[in-house]
Design brief:
By secondary structure, the chain is of the alpha+beta class. The chain has one domain (about 25-155): Mog1/PsbP, alpha/beta/alpha sandwich (Protein Transport Mog1p, Chain A), CATH 3.40.1000. It has helices spanning about 1-20, 65-70, 80-90, 140-155; strands spanning about 25-30, 30-35, 40, 50, 55-65, 95-100, 105-110, 115-125, 130-135, 155. It is about 30% helix and about 40% strand. A hairpin with a 4-residue loop joins strand 6 (about 95-100) and strand 7. It contains four helices and ten strands; from the N terminus they run αβββββααββββαβ. The chain starts with a helix and ends with a strand. The protein has a seven-stranded antiparallel β-sheet. Strands 1-2-10 form a three-stranded antiparallel β-sheet.
């Protein structure tokens, strides 16, 4: 009987340890994000980085304060200022919500007759803003909404 308990404890320990390995850190510019290890980094024109797995995509866009001066944003601008500028540039009426160290908004959109669900997050470093957008098929919204928050919460800025 004791052998069975030891075997169960060993198997449970191995299972729990392997769970730790199911995550991977991706470093992109001045930030790090922790995601399931099946994500891969790929190229996408116009973005700092693009990560995907079979069901989710994540785009990373950076905009320096210098680049944003033309629309009146600078190093003194807040996350809310930047989020509002994103809303305005998209002619959208997103509800801005507060995350741990970021702001975000959630919306749905149709691209090439396919419905998607999005969560866009804005972060600020010492010299730029980041717009990080998670997306999935609209029918997977319930499956990924809490994961998007968890992944956004994992983002750490170096500066």
């Amino acid at each position: 009987m004791k052998k069975i308990h030891y075997i169960i404890i060993i198997l449970l320990g191995a299972f729990l340890l392997s769970g730790c390995e199911s995550q991977k850190e991706f470093t992109i510019d001045d930030l790090t994000i922790t995601l399931p290890k099946e994500f891969e980094q790929k190229e996408m024109d116009g973005y700092l980085a693009y990560l995907e797995n079979k069901e989710v995509g994540i785009t990373f866009l950076e905009e320096t304060f210098t680049d944003l001066e033309t629309i009146g944003l600078n190093k003194d601008s807040t996350l809310e200022d930047y989020a509002n500028a994103v809303k305005e540039s998209n002619n959208a009426n997103y509800e801005i919500k507060e995350g741990n160290n970021y702001l975000y908004f959630i919306y749905d959109n149709t691209v090439d007759e396919t419905d998607y669900h999005y969560m866009s997050n804005v972060f600020k470093s010492d010299d730029e803003f980041y717009l990080i957008t998670f997306f999935c098929f609209k029918e997977d919204t319930e499956k990924y909404e809490s994961e998007f928050i968890k992944w956004a919460d994992s983002i750490k800025l170096k500066k």
